[in-house]
Structures are given as C-alpha cells and as structure tokens.
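User: My collaborator sent over this chain with a note saying "see what the structure looks like." That's all I know about it. Can you take a look?
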Amino acid sequence: MKRIMILNGSPRPNGNTQELIKAFTKGAEANGNEIVRFDLQKMNIHGCLGCCKGGKDRENPCVQKDDMAKIYPEYIKADVVVLASPMYYWGISGQMKCAFDRLFAVAEMNENYENPKKECILLMAAEGADADNFAPVKAFYEGLTSNLGWKNLGIVYAGGNMDAGAILGKPEQIAEAENLGKMC
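Assistant: Without extra context I'll predict from the sequence alone. Here is the result:
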C-alpha cells in the first residue's frame, strides 16, 4: 500500500482533469492505496515570497499561514505525488505552480535544501493532442523530477479535450489514467 497525494490544479469542478483524477483514483484504490486529494482552486494558497525563512516549524514549515498547512503533513507522508493539471499556455496551471513552489519550505527543513524523495505522476488534459503540444510540459516535468531526484511512475497526456467533459468521449484516455492508478 502507498500513500498517494493528488494535487488537483484544475479550476473546473467537472472538467477533464477531474475525470482523469477519478479514473486514476479508482485504479489506485483497487490496489488498496490510500489517497488524499487537494483541490487547489478551492484553497487559500498564497504565492511563494522567496524569503528562504521556512523550515523551522515541522508542522507548518512556511512562514505564511494559509491552506498549505493542510498540504504539508500529507506531502511529507506521501509516497507518491500526483500532479493533475489542465494545460495552460503549454504548462501547468497557476494553481498548481503556486502550491508546488510553496513545497520548497519542506526542503528548507534540511540543511542542504534536499527535497523528500517521492514517486511522481503527471495527469494532464489539454486542447492540443500532438507531441509538439506537450513538449514544453514534458521538458518541465522531466526537469522537475530529475532535479528533485523523484521517480517518474508515468504520465497521461489527454489531448483533444477543450470543452469540459470532452474526455468522456475518449474512453481510452480514461482507461489510461485508471491503469496508471492500478500500477501504484
């Protein structure tokens, strides 16, 4: 059994990213994994101040006091971090970037700013569907996991999904997310 933390960077409560998360969760729970999910759009999370003054309080390592206090303990305990986001301007959503930047406070708890070692998954819905469309996200995600020393467990690029719910007409994309969940 693994502890899986899902960061949902989508602002749409019934969008395509939501469907990927549901399918992934179904697969992961089938293996007895424990899932905790954060819908970042609904949370009060401020941008990183770049103050480099975090890491002193293990319960809430950032100097800012907001809803990241709910995420930090789960992040520290998680074996797997799932980044679920729609593609916004060939990158992750602002909600995702904002929350992920704030995780640096956990690295500040270590003398060498070392991040906890995790396994990671990317679930991404997008309008465009070809490899060129996903290339900037692929470069970002590979750079992120490499520099953090995290193990990439898999990626679901679900292209061709502009309108909310469009992914429901693509059962192969839903199945891909569920199968990735079953591999955890």
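A starting point for your reply to your collaborator: The chain is about 35% helix and 20% strand.
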